[in-house]
Amino acid sequence: MTTATKPLKRDKSLIPLSREHHFGLLFCWKLKQGLANGTSLEIMRQYIQYFWKNVLKAHCREEEIILKRLLPKDDVMSARLHEEHQLIEAIIGLINKQKTVNTSLVATLQQDLTDHIRWEERELFPYLQTVADPEELSDVGRLLEHDLQEPKDEFEPAFWENKKVA
Fold first, then answer.
1. InterPro entries attached here (predicted)?
2. Which of 28, 104, 143, 160 is an S-S bond match for 114, by CB 3.0 to 4.6 Å?
């Protein structure tokens, strides 16, 4: 007889980051829809720039500062977090610098960011909850409640809703 381990309930201190992760997954879904709809890659580049500038860049910076504070010094999870954030930023940098946007690069960003967010939610956060000092975790939760604003996506055109946005 096997006993299934009950999933670890998300600590309320990390919920603001999880909400932003949901918004990040929605961004990834929009990119996927845009590719499937045949949206102009230039419009998608503009959207990626918009989302990086208005949501993702600050989220990554905040996450690294806060989560490094909670993780033990020289922890492998901290190194992975930093490396994956650097990779995402590098992919976005390539998309921004190319004269002609490459479909596979947009698809790579979409998949890598989705995988990264899922890793944070499924592995990093549960791990954090077992190694972080509960008082520090609580302090971080209070900080996140005050610092993080609900993300907004006001990008136009809403290419993920339509077929063939030129």
1. Hemerythrin-like
2. 28
Judge whether residue 30 has pLDDT over 90: yes
Note the pLDDT tens digit of each residue in 55-86.
Answer: 999 999 989 888 888 998 889 999 999 999 99
Closest to 31 in 3D by CA, of 22, 20, 19, 39: 39
The whole-angstrom separation of Cα 139 and Cα 48 is: 32
Rounded to an integer, what distance in angstroms lies between the CA atom of residue 158 and that of residue 99?
A: 23
Q: DSSP letters of 50-118?
A: HHIIIIIHHHHHHHHHHHHHHSPTT-HHHHHHHHHHHHHHHHHHHHHH-SS--HHHHHHHHHHHHHHHH
What sign for the dihedral angle of Cα 71, 111, 28, 104? positive
148 residue type, one letter: L
